[in-house]
Amino acid sequence: MRAEQFRRDGRPEVAFVGRSNVGKSSLMNALLRRKGLARTSSTPGRTQAVNYFLINDKFWFVDLPGYGFAKASKKDRAKWARLIGRYLEEEGEERRLLLVQLVDAKVGGTDLDRQAAEYFVDLDVPLLIVATKIDKVGRSRRHRQTKVIQQNLELPEDARPLSVSAVTGEGLQPLWNAITSFLEARE
């Protein structure tokens, strides 16, 4: 996909980004209560393009390729990184973009997640950090794991990640609330 093929119709965009196999497509499907809308796979690197989903004819969900490990060549991974960069760095008149960075709650945030968060902050794009797959973390460890993510990504004290599970539905409503707040502020 070339930069001129990005959809720029003035509607707000909520873009999901994260390491390969962190659950971007699964989370979008869960939020929209639609199985199979965004293609999912247990194989990292399934999403290889910028995929747009028009929601209620009002805004876009954007599924970005994962960064990091994928069963793909270095050349393909570099191509995906350039594509994500072009998508994020493209300037538009009053572009309305919320970037939702997903981090695996069980892993706790990697150096790559931290580097990505720094890059996103440098772009001055509204950023929401979401800890995915929270159902795979024991209840007694969940609060501690979100704190680990916050520390590993070097986030400010008031920037605690939201915890969600695409499997159980836990945390979906607070995430929707955050997305809705962003959209309402941009109208």
Number of strands: 6
How much of the sequence is in beta strands?
Answer: 15-25%
In angstroms, what is the radius of gyration? 15 Å
The first-to-last residue Cα distance is: 29 Å
Could you tell me the mean pLDDT?
83
CATH class membership: Alpha Beta
CATH architecture: 3-Layer(aba) Sandwich
Helicity range: 25-40%
- Strand order, main sheet: write it out: 2-3-1-4-5-6
Number of domain modules: 1
* Order of SSEs: EHEEHEHEHEH
CATH homologous superfamily, by name? P-loop containing nucleotide triphosphate hydrolases
Question: What is the tally of helical segments?
Answer: 5
Under CATH, the topology is which?
Rossmann fold
The biggest sheet, with number of strands, parallel, antiparallel or mixed sense and barrel status, is: 6 strands, mixed
Q: Tell me the overall shape.
A: globular
Point out poorly predicted stretches. 41-47
